[in-house]
Amino acid sequence: MFDPHMLQQDFPILSTPLKSGKKLIYLDNAATSQKPQVVIDAITQYYKRDNANVHRGIHELGDRSTRSWHEARKTIATFFGATPEELVMTRNTTEGLNMVAYSYGEACVREGDLILTTVMDHHSNQVPWQELARRKKARLEMIPVTREGMLDLEWLERKVKVEGEKVKIVAFPHVSNTLGTLNPVEKIVRLVRAFTKAVIALDAAQSAPHLLINFDRLGVDFMAVSAHKMLGPMGIGALFIRQSLLENVSPWLFGGGMIGEVTKERATFADDLEDRFTAGTPDVAGAVGWAAACEYLSKLDMKKVEQHDKELVNYTLEKLQAIPEVEIVGPVERVKRYEVRGKRCGSVAFLYKGVHAHDVAQVLDSEGVAVRSGHHCTMPLHAAFGWAATTRVSFNVYTSKEDIDVFVRALGKVKEVFEK
Ligand SMILES: Cc1ncc(COP(=O)(O)O)c(C=O)c1O
């Protein structure tokens, strides 16, 4: 049985009391998740036992480290339904999306072309496109968000029909980190492919911790993720690249490890994708830790992880809908039992009437409840809806319904404090 209370025991930080002596109720998982002991151990063991640089040393440790790196890459690729050849290690989702802009966009986008992203995207999936459009004198437009917090697919359909092959890149999030909206990837892919030859880049930062993802089946061309949001360490992530596109993607970081041959004048680059995009020493310990996180999640079974998230989202919506001062942002429909996937995933953000989000977060913090307040790196979305800031609770495998109860009780304090 999937029991978040049991899982909490795997995460040492969750049983470390706060300065106040209160128990930590960690509901800031969309910012970063906590790490289970198996991930901490995998990283420690790597440094204790196997540490050496990869691909370089002809000695036992060099061999062990290189093997650890390759095994970790294979585990991570398999977790996402991809092959190791399709996986480029990055520092995080942000770097992955920038890589698409530099490694692919730089060569394929020309003056007057159109790049599409969305109003609901994280700045990481907006600013790289703004910069690319500026460099290439291309146009950038953002798919609007409906009142209900969904992507306006009618707008998208009109746009791709009118612009056709002028559209070169379409980038969007699998799950919005503010609205919690779960976007219908396959439907968007079909729509874009019907009228354009654009490549499709998916930001899967917020879906990877909660959903069973199969890169191949999603049908996108690029997919970026971060390890730290899915129980892995900070400082490592991946960009998945569709096999048929590999020839069209150029390296964007240059130096040791990624070359074929170097003369005084120029260099050729490694044929092997993994080497070509790994300039300099990679984060082997990070990869080993991330692979341990993937194995931990696989053992839990991602279908159960997804079901657990669905229940938490429903439960939180139900509790918040009963509080008159609270206005939930994003889709408010609860997921029906028989639905495979609903309209949202991972988090619930809200406005509290008459109280700034930072004040709400501070009151919650005084009760041991860690949440995020602010614009969550989605300023254009906040501007579009006229919100100064929102408060967000977000979940992971160790989040229990009792944690939500503590949060809701703590929210009661907001009224007490601000009605005085
Ligand atoms: C939807 C989304 N995309 C991208 C990012 C950026 O992730 P990272 O900081 O790991 O690069 C985040 C981080 O919160 C996010 O929520």
From TrEMBL:
The terms under GO molecular function for this entry are:
cysteine desulfurase activity; pyridoxal phosphate binding
Tell me, which GO biological process terms does this entry list?
Answer: cysteine metabolic process
Q: What class of enzyme is it?
A: transferase
Q: Which reaction does it catalyse?
A: (sulfur carrier)-H + L-cysteine = (sulfur carrier)-SH + L-alanine
Where does this protein have coiled-coil stretches?
none
Essential cofactor(s): pyridoxal 5'-phosphate
Q: Which Pfam families match?
A: Aminotran_5
Q: What is its EC number?
A: 2.8.1.7
Q: Origin, by domain of life?
A: Bacteria
Q: Which InterPro entries match?
A: Aminotrans_V_dom, Aminotrans_V_PyrdxlP_BS, Cys_dSase_SufS, Cysteine_dSase, PyrdxlP-dep_Trfase, PyrdxlP-dep_Trfase_major, PyrdxlP-dep_Trfase_small
Q: Which UniProt keywords apply?
A: Pyridoxal phosphate, Transferase
Q: Which CDD domains match?
A: SufS_like (cd06453)
Q: Which residues form the Aminotransferase class V domain?
A: 25-407
Which family does the record assign? Belongs to the class-V pyridoxal-phosphate-dependent aminotransferase family. Csd subfamily.
User: Which NCBIfam families does the UniProt entry name for this protein?
Assistant: sufS
Q: What does this protein do?
A: Catalyzes the removal of elemental sulfur and selenium atoms from L-cysteine, L-cystine, L-selenocysteine, and L-selenocystine to produce L-alanine.
Q: What is this protein called?
A: Cysteine desulfurase
> What is the originating organism of this protein?
Candidatus Cerribacteria bacterium 'Amazon FNV 2010 28 9'
